[in-house]
Design brief:
This protein is α+β, with helices and mostly antiparallel strands. Helix content is 41%, strand content 21%. The protein has three domains: 148 residues, Orthogonal Bundle (DNA ligase i, domain 1); 200 residues, D-amino Acid Aminotransferase, Chain A, domain 1; 147 residues, Beta Barrel (OB fold (Dihydrolipoamide Acetyltransferase, E2P)), CATH 2.40.50.140. Bound molecules: adenosine-5'-triphosphate (ATP).
């Protein structure tokens, strides 16, 4: 396959407003790709070179890209800048500036050159290589190469969309593909295996150290009674409000991944050290929640302190001032054995044996009960100690990678308010705003929740409050980068907006209640109206730890709606 052909596919995906057509284009693209090409096609379609957990970045700023374009095309930098201002997109700018036909390079060749640019350290070398690549591409091809380089391909193709395309309509195949993906988080790898070895290879897919397992997630309820009703005798753990980490140890190598499956190893030198020194096995994958603890008082610091490590001064210094503890709550792999398939109680027992009670690593607090009363007492106790709530776990359940279900149930402090929980929503468009807001050019957002069965985003609310003025300005800047000329094919909306955007950013909102509404598409059927959030307000800026598909689902909104009804009856 040539890079031109791939670009043509991208162009078609960009043009379509139909989710079905988008799936069909992707399906034929994957079918056409060879074994050697298919992983690269998957990564590039997602706008990446490798999955995010490999941490590959181009390290090329807009400015550097404009300089390279100016050199490659022999035009003045100011000319490139003016054109960019007009077009608002560097890919379009490149397309307009490049007058040559290119060398019709193969997809693999362009991928390798892109990879080489990303890996090259010195800025000068990077620029030379980029210029060289641009000279080999036509304007049309350069448009997409440039967007990939600056991280703005904007096709809005999600993981689930690619999985559907891979299964190509064969029902039997999809669950196996999903499982393989859940075990390695690398869609390119899964696509390659599938092409190479077909269904058999996918069925035999195994956990591999250094490939994060997609995390199991919890459902929510509003009372201890409901936990017992659903789980019966169950494990109850303290719920820590920190940073979820998945730690992989492979002999003398340790890697750490975040909730969002990003590689975070360098951020946690203290955890790496403790795992190396205190976990006396060769190969293991452990999951836990890391948070800073005040050594003097034994109290937990608020989450804000823990995450400052990401932003603030040197990590070493931070590790000294605010040492972390990792409260391990699961064991997924041990000495070549897949533990995700074993029951929770068994995983937990081995986990406890594995962790000698060192200062940094320790098992999460846990006990087993079948009494709602015990859960309530423990809940009150953890809340007084400044924790978030509790997690209840089904004793015989496997670790369900990449899925949210009632094997794990969370009960949080904030549940006793009006809405049982905050809701994570995806921004799909914005309004210019009236009155005072018009000055900022943005006054409200249209937000949506995720519908996994169709891999689409269904609108659930407009959000106009909760952000400071400077946050609105920042939001607008970020949204303008991903704006679209039409509604994204994966967005289902009856409402118009001033600006549509790619469904990419997740925000957390609070609301007074959930109501039925004919205006929104979340939960809407032919006979029934949809669901909407009443008086929503943002409680966080953009959640960088969440992908759009991690937003709450339509089903969860319906459950929250039912929860709220049952609470108000009491
Ligand atoms: P989610 O991670 O489920 O999408 P969220 O980010 O909004 O949702 P919460 O709803 O607060 O987080 O709860 C789930 C998170 O709680 C887990 O992802 C994990 O990071 C954390 N957690 C804390 N203690 C535990 C524990 N003992 N067992 C499992 N998870 C725990």
């Amino acid at each position: 396959m040539t890079f031109r052909e791939l670009s043509e596919y991208f162009h078609r995906i960009e043009q379509t407003t139909s989710r079905l057509e988008m799936a069909e284009i992707l399906r034929s693209l994957l079918e056409k790709a060879s074994v050697e090409e298919v992983d690269k096609v998957v990564y590039l379609t997602l706008g990446e070179l490798l999955p995010a957990f490999r941490g590959i970045e181009f390290g090329i700023s807009e400015k550097l890209l404009m300089e390279s374009l100016s050199k490659a095309c022999g035009v003045r930098l100011s000319q490139v800048q003016t054109l960019y201002k007009q077009k608002g997109d560097l890919g379009d700018t490149a397309e307009e500036l490049i007058g040559w036909q290119g060398r019709n390079l193969s997809l693999v060749r362009v991928y390798e050159e892109l990879f080489d640019i990303a890996r090259t350290r010195g800025t000068l070398d990077k620029v030379m290589k980029l210029i060289n690549l641009l000279k080999g591409l036509s304007g049309f091809e350069a448009k997409y190469a440039v967007r990939i380089i600056i991280g703005r391909l904007r096709l809005g193709v999600g993981d689930a969309t690619i999985i559907d395309a891979m299964a190509g309509g064969i029902r039997e195949l999809k669950p196996y593909i999903e499982r393989a993906y859940n075990l390695c988080s690398d869609l390119g790898l899964v696509a390659k295996r599938l092409k190479e070895g077909g269904l058999e290879a996918i069925k035999e897919f195994k956990i591999q150290l250094g490939y994060p397992i997609r995390m199991a997630l919890a459902e929510r309820v509003s009372s201890a009674q409901e936990i017992i009703q659903r789980l019966g005798r169950c494990g109850v753990e303290a719920k820590y409000d920190g940073f979820r980490l998945q730690v992989h140890k492979d002999s003398d190598k340790v890697e750490i991944y975040s909730r969002n499956l990003e590689r975070m190893t360098e951020m946690f030198p203290d955890v790496v050290k403790a795992v190396m020194e205190d976990v006396k096995v060769q190969k293991v994958i452990i999951e836990g929640e890391a948070l800073a603890v005040n050594e003097e008082t034994g109290e937990f610091y608020p989450f804000q302190i823990t995450i400052q490590r990401k932003r603030k001064y040197s990590i070493e210094e931070y590790a000294r001032d605010y040492p972390l503890k990792l409260f391990a709550f699961d064991l997924l792999y041990l000495e070549e054995e897949d533990y995700t398939v074993k029951p929770y109680i068994e995983r937990r027992k081995t986990l406890e044996e594995l962790l000698s009670q060192t200062n940094t690593l320790r098992p999460s607090e846990m006990f087993i009960t079948q009494e709602a009363k015990d859960i309530e007492t423990f809940f009150e106790d953890v809340i007084t100690r400044g924790l978030e709530g509790i997690m209840a776990k089904r004793l015989d359940a496997p670790y369900t990678a990449g899925s949210r279900n009632f094997n794990w149930i969370k009960l949080k402090r904030s549940y006793r308010g009006s809405l049982a929980d905050t809701v994570d929503v995806v921004v799909v468009g914005y309004y210019y705003g009236k009155g005072a807001r018009a000055r900022l050019g943005i006054g409200g957002l249209l937000v949506a929740v995720y519908e996994p069965s169709t891999d689409t985003f269904k609108t659930v609310s407009k959000v106009g409050s909760g952000f400071t003025e400077s946050e609105w300005v920042r939001l607008r800047e970020m949204l303008d980068v991903i704006k679209l000329s039409h509604k994204h094919p994966r967005v289902d909306s009856l409402i118009e907006v001033d600006v549509w955007v790619e469904p990419r950013y997740v925000i957390t909102v609070n609301a007074d209640e959930i109501t039925r509404s004919p205006l929104h598409t979340a939960g809407r059927t032919l006979e029934e109206p949809g669901y909407a959030l009443r008086f929503p307000r943002a409680v966080s800026f953009i959640r960088e730890d969440k992908n759009p598909e991690d937003a709450n689902t339509v089903e969860e909104i319906i459950r929250l709606y039912q929860l709220q009804k049952s609470v108000s009856v009491e």
